[in-house]
Amino acid sequence: MVLPAVPTPAGAYVPAVRDGDLVWTAGQIPLVGGRLVETGVVGAGISTGRAAELARMCALNALAAAAEAAGGLDAIIRIVKVVGFVASGPGFVEQPLVVNGASELLGAVFGDAGRHARSAVGVAGLPLGAPVEIELVARVAS
């Protein structure tokens, strides 16, 4: 697996901040090569399965940002928390299944150290019309 380039922020913020032994990422949307892969609402045009794939892309972007702030991917020793936001159509309740795309990727990369606390939140809309946004907190080596 190769980490993508860290996406350029779309506003007045940085992709990730290290504070002591923690790195906090900004929310990451499914950008590839600086372009949003897909727009729309999950449960109203975008399937749960496709949204989980997009969440995986978001998690890769978040890992890239965290690794840059930590001094490399090898410096990350644990994923502590993941927050997933899902642009959800009326009545859509499968946000946890969408965010599993991110959680499963982190588990594949870090094994037991990739197991984390998590929130999966349905929202009316996300930046640029993205269907999914993922942020994470990672513990890094001192």
Summarize the structure in words:
Residues 3-131 form the Endoribonuclease L-PSP/chorismate mutase-like domain. This is LysR family transcriptional regulator. Pfam families: YjgF_endoribonc (PF14588). The chain is α/β, with parallel strands linked by helices. The protein has a single domain (19-140), classed as 2-Layer Sandwich (60s Ribosomal Protein L30, Chain: A). The protein is 27% helix and 31% strand. It contains 2 helices and 9 strands. It has helices at residues 48-70, 95-110, and strands at residues 16-19, 22-25, 31-32, 35-36, 41-42, 45-46, 76-87, 117-123, 132-140. The strands form 3 sheets. The protein has a 5-stranded mixed sheet with strand order 1-2-9-7-8, with helices on one face. Strands 3-4 form a two-stranded antiparallel ribbon. β7 (76-87), α2 (95-110) and β8 form a beta-alpha-beta unit. α1 (48-70) packs across α2 (95-110).
Which helices and strands appear, and what pairs or packs with what?
Elements lengths: L15 E4 L2 E4 L5 E2 L2 E2 L4 E2 L2 E2 L1 H23 L5 E12 L7 H16 L6 E7 L8 E9 L2
Parallel strand pairs: 5-6, 7-8
Antiparallel strand pairs: 1-2, 2-9, 3-4, 7-9
Helix pairs in contact: 1-2
State the gist of this model.
With 142 residues, the chain is an alpha/beta fold. The chain has two helices and nine strands; from the N terminus they run E-E-E-E-E-E-H-E-H-E-E. The protein starts with 15 loop residues before the first strand and ends with a strand.
